[in-house]
Amino acid sequence: MLCKNCGANIPENGGFCPMCGSITANTMNNCSVCGAELEPGAAFCVNCGTAVGSSGKQGNEEKNKIYSQPAYIPAGESGTYFGGSGPAHQGSKKALTWGNLLGEIWSKTWRAVLKALPMTILFFVISMLIHTFLLVGPNEGFAASGFLGSNLLATKGNVISATVLWTLVSTLIFSSMARKKQGKPGLLTSLQAIPGQMSEFVKNNQKAAPTAILTGAGMALVIAGLMSGTSSMVLAIGVSALFASPLGKLVALLLHSTWNAVWQALGVKGKQLESHAAIEGYLNMVGTACGFLLGIILIWDPFFGLVILGVAAGMMFSDRDKGQGMPVTPMIIFFMALVYFLGDTSLFTGGHLLLADDGGAAEAGGWANWWGSVGFGLAIAHGVPPAIGAALGPALANALVNIDPGSFYTGEDEGYDQDYVPQDGPTDAPYDASENESGDTPEGEEPLYDAEGYDKYGYDREGYDRSGFNREGYNRWGYDRNGWDREGYDQNGYDHNGYDRNGYDIDGYDRNGYDKNGYHRDGYDDDGYDKNGYDQEGFNRSGYDREGYNRDGYDRNGYDRDGWHRNGYDENGYDKNGFNRDGIDREGYDKNGYDSDGYDRNGFDRDGYDEDGYNQDGYDRDGYDKDGWGRDGYDRDGFNQDGYDRDGFGRDGYNKDGYDKDGYDSSGYNQDGYDKDGYDSEGYNDKGLGRDGFDRDGYDKDGYNGSGIDREGYDRDGYDSNGFNRSGYNRDGFNEQGQDAEGYDRLGYDEDGYDRAGYDSAGYNKDGFDKNGFDNNGFDKDGFDEQGYNKDGYDRDGLNKDGRDSEGYDKNGRDYQGYDRDGEDADGYTRQENLDKAMDQIIKDKMADHYYVRNPHLPQKFWNNTIGRVWNEMLGDWKGGQCGEYGEWGADWIKDSVKEIYGDDVVVESITLERNSNVNHRATLVILPDGERKVLDFWDGMQKGNGQIIDEKDWVKKWNEKLGDPWWGENKILERPAMQVDLKAFIDQYGKERGEQAFLKYYEKKGELGAAQSVLTSYGKEPW
Questions:
Q1: φ and ψ at residue 104, rounded to 5 degrees
Q2: Is 39 left (phi over 0), alpha (psi -120 to 50) or beta?
Q3: pTM for the whole structure
Q4: 733 burial class (0-12, 13-18, 19+ CB within 10 angstroms)?
Q5: Tens of pLDDT along 705-762?
Q6: Are strands 879-881 and 907-914 parallel, antiparallel or unpaired?
């Protein structure tokens, strides 16, 4: 006869399968409680839920006895007893499936969210504010930077990991709070014991452990590839907490059935899958927790995860197939891992993306400028998923803590899992050597055991069958298949009627309904008082209720609930009107509303003025406010806010039209334009004569002006107003042109402006040179100044003050870096040759300092990043790096040498060529003043022992061929120096001409104009 569960052979008339312990079809046909027909191997009656069990011993009179035990009833719910007595029965249950379990969690979570929607929204807003502040401030944008950006925040490429982290942390915190509220130990307290429990669990289930642990660890490492180290650590804590929770039992059973289905799909035959029920699921969780912990320190987590899954597959095929070797399926999984290793992680490390504006406050010029900046919206959007996760944490925690394992049908005895090992082991399972001896082996004859350690009756040397039960039907902890020990108690210490050895049920009450302290289920003792000493009306033996008041409503000190004493005053001595015996209220005011200083609550005295002397309208006793203005709008001096008095005159004595009380303006003129003496602003009276007696034309009443000149222009001596006679010469002998008879003016200059020596008033001759031979710019006829330099700053030898010509060469023909016009230094080496020598020397020095390349090829990459890394770097003095490190190190190593060779206007940064998000190569980029772009590949050079310097376009071509074409898209340069990125951003934003000007201006302010000009020149030669 074959077992319908595992396919093993069952001895004739056998009641149980010797391989899996399943009940055979001929063991029991009908339920002894309700009479319903039982399915072969059923653990419970589908009609009434009664557990079906037997001692497992052939010929035993209790073989077909049916046991039942109290089902799990959540706190606050009541059970319905079948037939009026016996075990509690919960009625219909959901089948245990992933869909039902996750649906239950989702349903409870959603209900909790709706129930506390304002709190959920508040948590979301707070989480958004915290995330945005950390992202925009300390992390300086949504590009991953430092610990915050790489582990805690939803930066570029880290959104999934950060969302999982914020959700888990919130869930774990509120789960711990819920546990404490239920009187259970907090999360941290519980976690301390879990590693020991896991270790003990693995120790007690060594046969099932390897495959189950490797399977869980493999999947965890694959998932850890998407997570940060911090997220992996929190996931490990979460899985550990699940292991020790009631919900963990359901997850363990689902994991067991899921992985069995996977192995069967991969080709493992059903009979090779030895059933361990929840054990394998618990071991899966142990492996998963360990896998997430490994994910914190390992690199290439998914690769190692796939390899471990391949090993687990090999064990499923090889170990359980009696050593027939690893078949095709695990080999396929292993090669999938190898393809992943080569294709997704490659031989190189990934670069990082430099963004023109990644939402940082510092880059935007401070928080004030951050609002509305280019990266503003995206920086906020990055915080939405983590904030949603954190906001859902309390609701999810509430759902997980309140999942009832008893509400799911698992196909096993509800009160006992035959494969579950308690955290501290069963309390009543002493080792009995007599039970472990085979009674069927003749005395003196050594029993024979097969390759798996079982005799012909299916028992091992300790007397247990493959399901872990001895001939009496008890396992190593003293429990039978239905979970009862020899005294009739289950692993929780309760008998069939639900009472423990001391006679109390799960709620702590004895058969008479009293607990250990003598209180009935209604909470009161025989005197009618509850545990806190109060009767049903709420009063204690002294006649006071829980708030300390007697039936008259007064406490022991004579005060009622409103705080009033029997004498009408409260405990501070105030009556119901708020006044003490002196007639003063709590604020220090009398019944008329004034304090001891005579001021009311508004701060005014009996006359209506405050301490500063102002009434409620803001005026003092003189009728002026604090600014000195009266009610009529005039100050104490009698002027209004426009500065005029009541008669319309200002402080200076003038009205709005600018006239004083006598009708004269500030200049002393009346409205007709005459002063007090009768003269206008030009000094003339109404007759047209001025104060000096002359009219506007300057003539007196006799026709002569003040100079004695008549209207024809001549004075009484015959000279005109210019002093010339009718012959055209003045009294000094000069004509109207100011020249004497020889043609020279009074200063001695001719009509061309030159004196008798030939120089003009500025001291220059007709050729523009002064008496010393220099023009007005300070240069002689040869174009040189007094120091001997021309307008371009060069002397007659063509050298400037620094001793260099227009091309930057000194008198010896060498530039600032010591190179001649042929590009050679004093030793005859070119710049390129010296750059080669500098890189060669750096490589030589670094090799001497024990630097090495971790990933020259696949075997060494695997070794150097695992065991070799520990041996070489942790235990030795070697320092290894891949192209990512060498691209960054190289820039630091070579920068000083490059500037010494090419000057300070060079740019030295990193460059990364990417195939996809993981396949790329990184090196050092140098932008020269002439715009040429050179790539210095230290990763390649460290392997070859000398420098590897090539043009950027040749480097891109070389590594395009090495990286190969991607499955989609194209290879591209992912990382460029910040100046290159900024130039492109400026051009994209403002256009080419304005963008280039803005770029140069931006870096001129930073003192890096020369380097920026080199980048701009390079862009002109070869745009990127």
A1: -65, -45
A2: beta
A3: 0.39
A4: exposed
A5: 877 778 887 887 888 877 888 888 888 888 888 888 888 888 889 888 999 889 998 9
A6: unpaired
